[in-house]
Structure formats: structure tokens, C-alpha cells
Design brief:
With 268 residues, the chain is α/β, with parallel strands linked by helices. The protein contains nine helices and eleven strands. A nine-stranded mixed β-sheet has the order 3-2-1-4-5-6-10-8-11, sandwiched between helices. Strands 7-9 form a two-stranded parallel sheet. Helix 4 (92-112) runs parallel beside helix 6 (153-173), helix 5 (138-151) packs across helix 6 and helix 6 packs across helix 9.
Length: 268
């Protein structure tokens, strides 16, 4: 049986690119959107494709606890969940924390508690980490710190907490739950190239949203994928890049303090 996917933030640019890729594989997609007026654009993405497309209208801003997130999970009945939502810089820091941190953590927790959900893929960003990656240069680390402390401090604080929540809860649940955190660089609307650098990359760079969508879908359909994976434009074909990170068991969480991460999650 083909999997069911709950796509949270279904009207986002990357989600609109992911949707036909899922449907082309005959998967069932439940696209979670905040405004019913967005539904026609999403339905057009499924025209003449073999999968099944469902629309669920809910506001993430109104999800205030794990139970409310869990009710959406129960309604959609997904095997896989993709978080591709965010405040998008609108509504100030309060909305960033409400969606990128709080709502994300509610859904992560609800999914970790739901045995039928087997994979959770988070779209994050390449700088979402507290420690310097061991493979980064001084310039990489300085660039990352500049963005996280001076340019996007609230976004960084929200995203890193959500990413750590997913990592910690996946560790607690065990091998029947794959937590995948895809961490692209600067997103562009350029045409997808099909050529990427996936895994331990430099700290800054760009990548087309179309390639992010392609990588995300292929990561979900591939067995054995887990952990943090950085993504930039590069020289590897997408399928080759995905195979490589699985074969080499790449996880860009390397360098982070996992024990401290677990303690923060247990204390929250």
C-alpha cells in the first residue's frame, strides 16, 4: 500500500513543488492549509496524476497544544508527515515562535506518540545549530553566527528548538520512527537543476526550491534515512546524493551536544 503524507504548510512554495512529486508516485497527500481560498491552486497540482489529493483547512496559529495537533494527525491518518510551514517573517517574533517553534513542537510530539506515523521530515535551514560543525571553516562559522545572532535571531531560536525536539523525541521512540531534518541554504526560485550537495556542506550557499522538493520526496521514499542533512546546490545527482548519505550514514547533528539537547527537551 502506498503511503499517506500529511504536508503541513501545503501552500508554501516548496510544498507546491512537492505535491505533484508525491502524487506522481501514487501517494495520498493531505495538504494542510490555513485558507480555503488556497485550495484550487493546490488541486491544480494534482491534475491527471495517479495519487489522491486531500485538502485540510486549519490554522497553525490556533493549534495551542499537543492534543489539538494530535486531532489533526488522527483526522489525516498519515504514515509520513512533512513540516514545510512557517510564519515567513510575518506577524513579528510572536508569530514566529507560535508557528515555527510551538506549533511545530506540538505536531512533532503528537507524531512521536502516534505509532502509525513512521517518518517526520522537517524543512529547517542550514544554520539551525548551536555548535560549530566540525567540517566548517572559521568563515563558515562566522557567517552562521552572524545570521543567527544579528539577522534572524528569533527565527533561529524557534527553529533550533523545534529541530532539537524532533531529534530528542525520535531518539526516545526508537528505530520505528525516522526523524529527517532537511537543512537547505538560501532558497531561490531558479529552475531545479537536479544537482546538489547533500550532507556535510559548507555553511552558506543557495539551492533552488525545486531541488529541495525533489530531495525531500526522495528522502522520504528511501529506507534508512534519518538525522540532519544540509543541502546546497552542487554536483551530485539527487538520487546519487540521497544514496550516498544513506550508505555513509551521514548525520549533520555531529558536533552538537546531544546530552544537553535531551536535557533541554526533558525540561520543556
Amino acid at each position: 500500500m502506498q503511503p499517506r503524507v500529511l504536508l503541513i504548510g501545503g501552500h508554501g512554495k516548496a510544498s507546491l513543488l512537492m505535491t505533484p512529486l508525491f502524487l506522481h508516485r501514487s501517494w495520498t497527500v493531505t495538504s494542510l492549509i490555513r485558507n480555503a481560498a488556497q485550495a484550487d491552486e493546490i488541486r491544480a497540482k494534482g491534475h491527471d496524476l495517479p495519487g489522491k489529493l486531500e485538502i485540510l483547512v486549519r490554522s497553525l496559529e490556533e493549534v495551542k497544544n499537543v492534543q489539538q495537533a494530535g486531532s489533526i494527525i488522527d483526522e489525516a491518518k498519515p504514515d509520513y508527515v512533512v513540516w514545510s510551514a512557517g510564519a515567513g517573517g510575518k506577524g513579528g517574533s510572536s508569530l514566529t515562535y507560535a508557528i515555527d517553534r510551538d506549533a511545530a513542537k506540538y505536531f512533532i510530539t503528537a507524531c512521536a506518540r502516534t505509532p502509525s506515523v513512521r517518518k517526520f521530515l522537517m524543512i529547517s535551514y542550514i544554520g539551525s545549530r548551536r555548535q560549530r560543525a566540525p567540517w566548517w571553516t572559521d568563515e563558515d562559522w562566522a557567517s552562521c553566527q552572524h545570521v543567527n545572532t544579528e539577522v534572524l535571531p528569533h527565527y533561529f531560536a524557534a527553529k533550533v528548538e523545534a529541530d532539537e525536539c524532533l531529534t530528542a523525541l525520535a531518539e526516545g521512540r526508537g528505530r520505528d520512527f525516522a526523524a529527517i531534518i532537511l537543512r537547505p541554504g538560501n532558497l531561490t526560485d531558479d529552475n531545479a537543476t537536479g544537482l546538489v550537495a547533500l550532507g556535510k556542506t559548507r555553511a552558506s550557499g543557495k539551492v533552488p526550491r525545486g531541488d529541495v522538493a525533489d530531495v525531500a520526496v526522495r528522502l522520504l521514499e528511501k529506507d534508512g534515512v534519518h538525522g540532519w542533512l544540509d543541502l546546497l546546490e552542487g554536483g551530485d545527482g539527487v538520487e546519487e546524493a540521497v544514496d550516498k548519505v544513506v550508505t555513509n550514514n551521514v548525520d549533520c547533528v555531529e558536533g552538537e551536544d546531544l546530552e544537553a539537547m535531551m536535557k533541554r527537551q526533558n525540561a520543556s
